[in-house]
């Protein structure tokens, strides 16, 4: 595995490989790698000749200073995991490399994606995601980009960003399934911060979503949303949202919406967990 810290050196290296028709797959991350991230690397390995992983805890996408400060950093074990997964390139830029002094933040038109669900509860978050992805996509210029369905709304935002940047012809966005622990909890770097008591409670988010999945044909949407929120709050979660939406727009679903998704975000004390489930 080759490690790059400078964007220019990485771009140059990848351009050389692109000239000889090598396919580049890209997996952007914030580190503290787990099997969710590694499943993306594995997918990318199957479909590309060169797999690039980036690790960068992007300050501009955190709307909560404490969440940023407490974000886990485990670079040594991350490198071991990437070596074991036969990742070809690791990009670990500094903040100044991504946002040099001359950097001018743009405003991205994300339409309603920015005002619903995560957008409503984390103001500025998706603008930050677009800022870092804009930089990374221009540096790496991948043929294939790999993102996890765990961050479903983020996938939709990045799909829109690729269009805004007119990069959607050269870069294909591949959304891959959420990897879960044996008890259903969606793998997440933030799980490292859970105490044993919180960890024991955390799978209730997925249980609640799965329960909605089983009953979606029999019970009304508003009833299911209400019951889901009650189930979580009675067990000590503070729920930001639990919403059943149209999977293509993330706007509220109606009974006859063909593809529905249920998405939830809830706090266990100061730790915010998210998850979602596409409903058949
Ligand atoms: P992060 O490091 O949390 O920014 O995530 C980097 C990428 O890994 C994003 O595309 C996430 O959606 C994806 N990811 C995070 N958790 C999981 C998971 N449990 N299963 C699959 N992909 C995931």
Structural features, described:
With 280 residues, the protein is an alpha/beta fold. Helices cover 39% and strands 20% of the residues. It has 11 helices and 9 strands. The strands form 2 sheets. It has a 6-stranded parallel beta sheet with strand order 1-4-3-2-5-6, with helices on both faces. It has a 3-stranded antiparallel beta sheet with strand order 7-8-9, with helices on one face. The protein is globular and about 55 Å long. The protein starts with a strand and ends with a strand. The site of adenosine monophosphate (AMP) has 16 residues, from helix 2 and strand 5.
Explain the layout of strands and helices.
Blueprint: E1 2-4, H1 7-19, E2 24-29, H2 35-47, E3 50-55, H3 65-69, H4 75-84, E4 89-91, H5 95-98, H6 118-121, H7 125-140, E5 144-148, H8 152-164, E6 172-176, H9 196-201, H10 204-215, H11 221-234, E7 238-246, E8 260-268, E9 271-279
Parallel strand pairs: 1-4, 2-3, 2-5, 3-4, 5-6
Antiparallel strand pairs: 7-8, 8-9
Helix pairs in contact: 7-8, 10-11
The structure holds adenosine monophosphate.
Question: Top keywords for this entry?
Answer:
binds adenosine monophosphate, 39% helix, 3-stranded antiparallel β-sheet, 6-stranded parallel β-sheet, alpha/beta, 280 residues
Mean pLDDT equals: 98
Give helix and strand order, one letter per element, not per position. Answer: EHEHEHHEHHHEHEHHHEEE
Largest sheet strand order:
1-4-3-2-5-6
The tally of beta strands, per DSSP, is 9
**Helices and strands: which structural class?**
alpha/beta
Percent of residues in helices: 25-40%
Q: Whole-Å distance between the termini?
A: 41 Å
Shape estimate: globular
Bound molecules: adenosine monophosphate
Beta-sheet strand percentage? 15-25%
Q: Which stretches of 5+ consecutive residues score pLDDT under 50?
A: none
For the report, how would you describe the main beta sheet?
6 strands, parallel
Report the total helices: 11
**Rounded radius of gyration (Å):** 19 Å
